[in-house]
Queue: 2 jobs
Job 1
Amino acid sequence: MSLHIPFDNSYARLPEGFYTKLAAAPVREPRLIAFNQPLAELMGITGADEESLTQLFSGNQTLEGSEPLAQLYAGHQFGHYNPQLGDGRALLLGETVGQDGQRRDIQLKGSGPTPYSRNGDGRSWLGPVLREYIVSEAMHALGIPTTRALAAVTTGEPVLREQLYPGGILTRVAKSHIRVGSFQVFSARRDETALKTLLEYTISRHYPEADGPLGLLKAVIEAQSRLIPQWMGVGFIHGVMNTDNCQIAGETIDYGPCAFMDSYHPQKVFSSIDQFGRYAYGNQPDIIVWNMAQLATALVPLMPDQDEAIDLFTQAVHAMPTLLQANWLKVFAAKIGISDPEPDDEALIKDLLSRMEEGQADFTNTFAALGSPSARDQFLNPERFDEWHQDWAQRIKGLPDVEATLHSANPLLIPRNHRIEEMIQAAVGGDYAPFHRLLEAYKSPFSTMPQNEDLRRPPSEQEMVKATFCGT
Ligand code: AMP
Ligand code: MG
C-alpha cells in the first residue's frame, strides 16, 4: 500500500489574497531523520514507507490532494509593526481531519523561498529543526497545548548562517497557523472583506460557539490565559512572543530561541536578539495582554459601532490579567501540592519563588523535590528554604492528595538547554543517537527511568547555555 494522506483542505478555498500557491523547492539528497508514527495514525496517514515519507517531507514530491501554499500575515516584532511577513520559509501542504475529529495543518518548515521570504533563503539548518522537534513533542508530553512535530529530514544541502551547516526541514502539525498577525495584515490594509472572511473562517474552525468579533476575542483571551501560566509552570520562556508567533487556537507555536530555565530568575532571557528583555520569563503574562490588545485593535473595523467596540474590547482585554492570575494560581498552587487554592496561597507561592531566586535554586528540581527532605539542597542558603517549609507544612496539614498533586504538577524532566545543544552538536557530526534518546526520554516527563537520571542534572558552569538563537 502506498502513502496516503486524506487531505481535506479548507484554507486553500479562501480567497487568493490570503496566500500564494507554490510548490516546495526540491532538495538534493533528502534523508528521513524522524517520523512521528502515533501522530500520523491519529491524522489518518496510512501506508507510510521510508522512501515516500522522505520524498514528501523534503518537498521533493507533492502528494495527491496536497495544495501547497505560503500564508500571508503581518505582525508586531518586538513591538514594531511589520506590515508584511508571511511564510518565508514554510509551506502549508494541506489539512486532514483526524480520527479524533480534529482538523490539523501539515506544514513544511525550511522548504525554500516564497514571495514572503524578503532577504531570507527560505531554508533552515538542522539545529532549529531538531530543537523544535524535541521541544514541541516534550511540551505535548508535559500536557501543554502546542504544535507538534510529524517528521524531520536532512536535505543534503548546506545552509549558510555564521558558517555552513547541514540543511533540514521540519514538518509541523498545528490546529491551524492562523495568528494574531493574520488578522492584523487585513486590518492594517483596511480590507474589511478579507477581515470578515477570516473572522468567519476562524470562528467556524476553532470557536464555533463564539459570537462575532467580540466572541472570538474573548475566546482567544481565554485560551491564551490558560496557555501562558502553563508555560510559567514549567519554566518555559518562548523568546519571541511577536504577534505573528501568537496563534489564535491557543497552541504554543514557533520554537525559535525558546528555552527552559535551570535556576530560577523571573527576568531570565536567553534569546540573543532580545536585548532589552521584552520577552523575559516574568514578562510573558504582560506581553500576552499586549498581544491581545493588538488582536482587539485588528478586529475593531468589523464592529458596527466603533466607539462601542472600543469600550467592549477594552473591557475584554482589561479582564485578562485577572484570568491569567487565577490560572497562574491554579498552576503554581498545584506545584506546592494544593489542588484547590485560596487567595492567600499566592503569597506563599511568591515567597517560595523569591527564596528560590535568592538561593539560585533549580526551578524544575526544587518543585520536584518538594515532598522530600532533599528540596533544601537546591538552595545556596538552605535555611531560607527551611523557614518557608514550616509555613508550607502548616498550610498543607490535613489536605487530601498533596502527594498526588505534587507528582502530577511537577515534571522531573524538561528539555534542558545544554542537552539540546549537545544533541545538536552530535547530529551535525552525523550522530543522531542523542536526538532519539532525548525524544524517547521526554515522552514521560513525570517519571524517569534510572538510565535517564543524568537528564535531570542542571548544567555545570561549562555546560551552561547563555544565549539561544532564532532558527533563521
Ligand atoms: P520568526 O519570528 O522566526 O517566525 O520569523 C519571522 C518572519 O521571518 C517570518 O515571516 C518568517 O517566515 C521569516 N523568516 C525567518 N527565517 C527565514 C528564512 N531563513 N528565509 C525566509 N524567511 C524567513
Ligand atoms: Mg514565526
Job 2
Amino acid sequence: MLPLHAKRIVLGVTGSIACYKAADLASKLTQLGAEVDVILTAAAEHFIKPLTFQSVTGRRAYIDQDLWGPEGHVLHVKLGKDADLLLIAPATANTLAKLAAGQADNLLTLTALAATAPLMLAPAMDGGMFDHPATQASLETLRAHGAQVHGPVSGHLASGLSGVGRMLEPAELAGHARVALSAGGPLAGRRVLVTAGGTQEPIDPVRVIANRSSGKQGYALAQAALDLGAQVTLVSGPTALIAPVGAHLLRVQTAVEMRDAVLALAAAADMLLMAAAVADFRPSQAADKKIKRAEGVPTVELAANPDILKEVSQQAQKPRVLVGFAAESNDLLANAQGKLASKGLDMIVANDVSAQDAGFEVDTNRVILLSKDGGQEELPLLSKYEVARKVLEKAASLLK
Ligand code: PMT
C-alpha cells in the first residue's frame, strides 16, 4: 500500500514563480498515493494552468470561477471538510496576510476558513517581502493558530537577488506532508532506533575497510517507521542518501562510533532495528600517515569490533523489541537462526545477498522474517520500502 493511500490533500497554489515547483509537489504527493485537490488563486493562474495540475493528479484542479459553478456556493466547505491536510505551496505574502486576518475573498482562502485539517504553509517571495514586519506578523499569527511553516530557504531569488525567500524543495515539502499525515499512526508515541549503511574502519588517513551496504534498506526502515507515526532516530554509516524528513540523523563512521551512538540511545527506544552492515573487524592500529607504496606491501593486523546487537540485548534497560538483519551468502536460514539466538533478538530478517536483485545496493530485496517464537514468513521480491513496512508491521505487533 502506498504511504499516503486514501489521504486527501488540498494543495493551495498562489501567485509566485515557485508555482512551477508546485506541479512537481502535486505529482510527488499523488505518486505517494494521496488524492490531491489543487486550488489555484487568480494570480497563480498567470504562472501556471489548472491543466498542468490535472495532468499530474488525475483530478480536477479548481480556480476562483468554480466558486460560482454548478456546485453552488458550497464547494469550499466540501473541499475544506474532506481534507486531511491543507498545504499552501507556494504561499505568497498576500495570501499569508489574508489567512492571518481570516479574510476569505477567493476559493482558497474560503476553503482555508472552512477546513478543520492541519494547515501547512510554504512561503515563497522576495527576501525583502519576507523580512517585512507585516509578513513576519502574519506568520506569527498563523503559527499561533497552529499552522506549520516550512521554509523559505536562502538562495537565488527570481528578482536576481540572493536571500531568504525560496520555497522549500518539493521533495522536502512532501516529506513534511508525510510526517503530518502519519500523526496518530500505530507507532505514535513510540521511539524507533534504526541503523543503516556500512561502517568504515580506517587503515590510514585515506584508506578504509568498507563494505557494499548503500544504506537503502535502513533508510527505508526509517521512512516506514515515520509513516507509522514513530519518532525515529537514524544512526547511519557514510552514505550519499538523504535522510527521510522527520528522522533525527546521527552520522557515524566506524563500528565503535555506531556502538557508542546505539548504546546511548537504546535505553530510551522502544524498538531497535539494525540494518547496518557493521564491520566485524577493524585494523588494530590505524596509521596516522598515508602508507606509502614505496615502503612495500603492508601487513594490516585486525582486531574484533564489538557486537552491537549482543551488547544491547545484554543491557538491563533495552528496547522492548530487538530486530537484526542477517546478510548471508549461504545457509541462509541456519545462519540467521543462529544469530537470532546468539544475539538475543526478538526477530531477524534473513537476507540472501547472493541474488542480483536482493541485498546490497539494489532497490529491491527478498527476505524471510524469523521470530524468536519460531515464526517464519517468507516475503516475495519487494521494494526495500515494502520490505521495511512488513518488518515494521511485524515488529509493531511484537510491541503489543
Ligand atoms: O544497505 P543496503 O545496500 O540497502 O543493503 C542492505 C543490507 C544487505 C546491508 C541489509 O539488508 C542487511 O542484511 N543488513 C545486515 C548486514 C550484516 O552486517 O549482517 P550480519 O549477518 O553481519 O550481522 C547480523 C546482525 O548483527 C545485523 O543486524 C548487524 O547490524 C548486527 N551486527 C553485526 C556486526 C556487529 N559487529 N555488530 C552488530 O550489531
